[in-house]
Design a protein that fits this description.
With about 280 residues, this protein is α+β, with helices and mostly antiparallel strands. It is globular. The protein contains seven helices and 18 strands. The structure holds zinc ion. The site of zinc ion (ZN) has 8 residues, from strand 5.
């Protein structure tokens, strides 16, 4: 089952992707979910699958997909050996930071190269969506807490990341992406069997099995839940493999006209064009 968050006719809702379009979970008879968070937390997989067996309410071209983010966004950095070495050294604990949802766009929406920097980079990643929260979750039971998975581009403004802080380098408006949907875990199986590929304007930049993670998905959930309660809807980006733009010689910065694709087997392909950020009118966004 593929769950989306979308805008249609000026209204935000969530839905299930079916052949021919989208079933609107905010309008269905019986148990509804107005938001992705309600769908993840409030509906059972059986209820979601039942909704997904109905005929679509909307065609795909009638909706604009939004970031399928039902909760917080927690990122793990330097989690593939070769990438850790292209940045610095291999960490012996997970490197965790946070992103705001405003720093992310949905499938097909443009990534915005900021006015302050041209050092804009891509990071293809697998993101995990938590279905059941908890604290001190043992590694062996961690996958029971996973609702599903999505593709994630942890887009980064490298000069700000290295000269200012990790937090600002990762939180420029509309510099990352997530989507196109959340695929439920029953469709992917164990995430270690998935393969991730990132392409920029058709050229393959990154390719890795998720089994190359230094801290695998169960270990990340065990680590985080020992620190704080993980919550239904939390999105955990698991880190990017080697091949990012800044580590190339010469660097391959994203520029207007580029298209970034993050493809993960059994999950889907997240695709976003790159544009220059427009001039700020001074009005609130
Ligand atoms: Zn990352």
């Amino acid at each position: 089952m593929k769950l989306v968050s979308f805008m249609a006719d000026g209204r935000i809702s969530c839905g299930a992707v079916v052949s021919g379009g989208i079933v609107d979970l905010g309008r269905q008879p019986g148990r509804r979910a107005e938001t992705l968070r309600e769908a993840v937390e409030g509906l059972t997989l059986a209820e979601l699958n039942e909704a997904a067996s109905r005929s679509p309410d909307l065609r795909r071209d009638q909706v604009r997909l939004l970031p399928p983010v039902p909760g917080r966004i927690i990122c793990v950095g330097m989690n593939y050996r070769e990438h850790a070495l292209e940045v610095g050294t291999v960490p012996d604990v997970p490197v965790v930071f946070l992103r705001t949802v405003e720093s992310l766009v949905g499938h097909e929406a443009p990534l915005m190269r900021p006015r302050l920097s041209s050092d804009m980079d891509f990071e293809g990643e697998l993101a995990v969506v938590i279905g059941r929260g908890g604290r001190n979750i043992p590694r062996e039971r961690a996958l029971d807490h996973v609702f599903g998975y999505c593709c994630f581009n942890d887009g980064s403004i490298r000069d700000y990341q290295f000269k200012h802080s990790l937090t600002v380098g990762k939180n420029f408006a509309a510099t990352g992406a997530v989507g196109p949907w959340i695929v439920t875990a029953d469709e992917t199986g164990d995430p270690s069997g998935l393969v991730l590929v990132t392409r920029v304007s058709g050229e393959e930049m990154q390719r890795s099995g998720i089994d190359d993670l230094i801290f695998d998905v169960p270990s990340i959930i065990a680590y985080l839940s020992a620190i704080m309660a993980i919550q239904p809807g939390d999105v955990i980006a698991t880190g990017t493999p080697s091949g990012v733009g800044f580590a190339r010689k010469p660097p391959r910065w994203l520029k207007p006209g580029d298209v970034v694709e993050v493809e993960i087997s059994r999950v889907g392909t997240l695709r976003n064009p790159v544009l220059d950020e427009g001039h700020d009118s001074g009005a609130p966004a």
